Amino acid sequence: MARRTDDLRLAVGAALRRLRNQGHFSLDDIQRGTSEHGVRVTRSHLSRVETGQAELSLPRYLALVRVLGEPAGEVTESLAALVDGALEPGGPGDDLVDGGPGEDDCGGEPATGCEVIALAPGATGAPVLLLQQALTARLFYRGPIDGTYGQQTEFAAVAFHKAAGRPRTTDWVYSDWAALGRFVSDIPDRPDEPDRIEVDVTRQILTLVEAGHVTAIIPVSTASGEPYVTYTGAVVYSHTPRGDFHLTHHGIGWQCSYIGCIYYPWFFTPHYAIHGYPNVPPWPASHGCVRVPVWESDWLEGHLAVGMAMHIWD
Predict the structure, then answer these.
(1) What is the distance between the alpha carbons of residues 41 and 16, in angstroms, rounded to a whole number?
(2) Taking CA atoms, which of 180, 185, 198, 212 is between 20 and 30 Å from 102?
(3) Four-point Cα dihedral 110, 113, 114, 119, nearest 10
(4) At what angle do helices 43-50 and 2-21 cross, to 10 degrees?
(5) Which of 311, 294, 153 is nearest to 242 (CA)?
(6) Structural domains in the chain?
(7) Rounded Cα–Cα distance for residues 234 and 11 (Å)
(8) DSSP secondary-structure letter at 24?
């Protein structure tokens, strides 16, 4: 890990010197820029970065990279290596601000004052690439690694926040890095069912298990509990059944009925299914089915099969 940190320190320092020598930035410019990203990187810090002597936390490195713009290849590679390491137990991610030891990284400021947004929808560049890589490694993201904080990245961030019991926002705050590094899926152990689906209604996530290993964690929206009118005119309350099921049959493409259209449904009862849907909010909102984002439904096509076990629980 020390080697990764050294590589990043030298790469960022070299980039900073090069850009300063070319007249692109002054130390004051960079100090102001990092402050706008909610991280205090002082002139003293910057001087030490330039000379390769600074030992900065991951949030400060990320803020520097954002201010410096799209970095040279060696900076991107070194930063990626550091983030990979930060996601290991005991890695640098354990010292990010989350009310714990990361307070030292705030230069003595209270931890709550450092709980700021690191990345948000619409962001682009190397830090987003790193986030996408980290979310992919933790099985929350299956989209393109393109450095754009778009809809698929937003939903992956929400899925992680749901799974980790954090605020269900699309923003990525600095303490999320450490929380992602510590995250371990805690679904029930079912050794007799190596291939199965687990739906946690409380956290609103679907966990796919294949060959005994978790392969995907997907955000869902289950029943809202609100009333709706059936095709017979009866008023009923939406409800997602709990219990043990198996996938019974499958629909191809969009399937439409009196309550709307659903995408590639996998039925686990005659009337309830896992299916793609255009609107999958962070909270329960369905008529009883298990909604997933449309692109996740496409991905599931290659991983689900009729007869697969499914468990729904609170």
Answers:
(1) 13
(2) 185
(3) 170
(4) 100
(5) 311
(6) 2-182 (1.10.101.10), 196-313 (2.40.440.10)
(7) 67
(8) S
Beta strand spans in the chain (E): 117-119, 172-173, 196-200, 205-210, 213-219, 227-229, 235-237, 243-246, 249-250, 254-257, 260-267, 273-277, 290-293, 309-313
CA distance readout (Å), 14 to 17, 46, 75, 215: 5, 12, 9, 39
**CB of 292 closer than 8 Å to CB of 274:** yes
Q: Count of CB atoms within 10 A of residue 239's CB?
A: 14
Spatial separation of the C-alpha atoms in residues 165 and 163, rounded to whole Å: 6
DSSP-derived pairing of the beta strands 213-219 and 227-229: unpaired
Q: Which residues of 180-217 are buried (b: 16+ CB within 10 A; e: fewer)?
A: bbebeeebeeeeebebbbbbbbebbbbbbbeeeeeebb
The DSSP bridge partners found for residue 209 are 196, 214
Name which of 67, 75, 82, 66 is nearest 128 in CA terms: 66
Instruction: Locate 127 and state its tokens.
Output: 């830090």
Percent of residues, the chain, with pLDDT higher than 90: 53
pLDDT, tens only, 228-262: 998 899 999 999 999 999 999 999 999 999 889 99
List pLDDT tens digits, range 129-164: 889 988 999 999 999 999 999 999 999 999 999 999
Q: Is 200 helix (H, G, I), strand (E, B) or coil?
A: strand
